[in-house]
Design brief:
InterPro entries: PAP2/HPO, PAP2/HPO_sf. It is built from eleven helices and no strands. It is globular, with a radius of gyration of 21 Å.
C-alpha cells in the first residue's frame, strides 16, 4: 500500500520548483517541462548536424553524395517517379501549407479558439522565419548534378519543404486530434501527418535539389519549433492565471468549439 508524499516545500512555504515541474499531479508544470525538454533534446542533434555541415565533415559529405547519386540515377531511369515527386513537392510546398494553416487559423478564430489560433500562427511564422535565416547563415550550396531532373534556387541547409511540412503536420495534429473521437480517425491523422512530413522531405532528395542532411535538419528544426512554441504558450497561459490545460484542450474546451459547456 503506497502512501502519498507531501510536496517538498521551498523556504517560502510554496512547493519546490522540482515538485511543480515534475509532479504528475501538477499537469501544467509537467507538460511545460516535457515540452521544453523535447525542444532542447531535438535542438542538440540539429546543432550537431549544423556544425558537421559547416565543417564539411567527410563521412557526412560522402553519405549525402552517395544517397543523392543513387536517387538521381533512379530518377533518370524512371520518368514517372520524377513526375510523382514533382507533383508532391509542388502540392506540399511551403506556400500551399501556409495557406492551409491560415485557413485553419481563420476557422479557429471563427470558432472562438483564439489562443489556439495564435499558437498555430506563431508556430508557422517562427519556423518560416528560422528556415531562411539559417540558410543564409550556413550558406550551403545545393547538389550539383549532371543532367538534373529538377532545379531550385537559394541555399540548401535546412530544407524549407521538410521544415514547413513538419510544422504543418504538428499544427494539424495539435488542432485536429482532440476532435477525433474514434481511434481509427486519430490513427488516420497521425498516418497523414507522418506521410506529409516524410514524403515531402524524400521528394526533395529524390529530385536532387537537397542533400539528405538538409532534409533531416528541416525535420529536426520543425519538431523543435513546435515543442518550443507549445512550451511558451503553456507557460503564458499559467502566467495569465488561466486554467492549467494544454493548447489542444484549450480549443476543445471552448463551448463554441466543442459544443459543450467549458468547466
Amino acid at each position: 500500500m503506497s502512501t502519498h508524499r507531501p510536496p517538498t516545500l521551498a523556504p517560502s512555504g510554496q512547493p519546490s520548483w522540482r515538485h511543480r515541474r515534475l509532479d504528475p499531479d501538477h499537469a501544467l508544470g509537467l507538460r511545460l517541462t516535457l515540452a521544453a525538454a523535447a525542444a532542447f533534446l531535438v535542438l542538440v542533434p540539429f546543432a550537431l548536424l549544423t556544425l558537421l555541415v559547416l565543417g564539411v565533415w567527410a563521412p557526412l559529405h560522402r553519405l549525402d553524395t552517395a544517397v543523392t547519386d543513387a536517387l538521381h540515377g533512379y530518377a533518370q531511369d524512371h520518368p514517372a517517379w520524377v513526375v510523382l515527386m514533382r507533383v508532391w513537392t509542388e502540392v506540399f510546398a511551403p506556400m500551399p501549407l501556409r495557406a492551409v494553416a491560415l485557413l485553419l487559423v481563420v476557422w479557429l478564430l471563427r470558432r472562438g479558439a483564439r489562443r489556439l489560433a495564435l499558437w498555430a500562427a506563431t508556430t508557422m511564422i517562427v519556423g518560416g522565419l528560422a528556415g531562411p535565416l539559417l540558410k543564409l547563415l550556413v550558406g550551403r550550396d545545393r547538389p550539383e548534378l549532371l543532367d538534373p531532373v529538377a532545379r531550385a534556387a537559394g541555399y540548401s541547409f535546412p530544407s524549407g519543404h521538410a521544415l514547413n511540412a513538419t510544422l504543418a503536420a504538428g499544427v494539424l495534429l495539435v488542432v485536429l486530434v482532440p476532435y477525433a473521437g474514434r481511434r481509427a480517425t486519430r490513427t488516420a491523422l497521425w498516418v497523414a501527418a507522418v506521410l506529409l512530413t516524410v514524403v515531402t522531405g524524400l521528394s526533395r532528395v529524390a529530385l536532387g535539389v537537397h542533400f539528405t542532411s538538409d532534409v533531416v535538419a528541416g525535420w529536426l528544426l520543425g519538431v523543435a519549433v513546435v515543442a518550443a512554441t507549445t512550451a511558451a504558450f503553456t507557460s503564458w497561459r499559467a502566467d495569465t492565471g488561466l486554467r492549467p490545460v494544454g493548447l489542444a484542450a484549450d480549443g476543445a474546451a471552448d463551448p463554441k468549439v466543442a459544443g459543450r459547456t467549458a468547466p
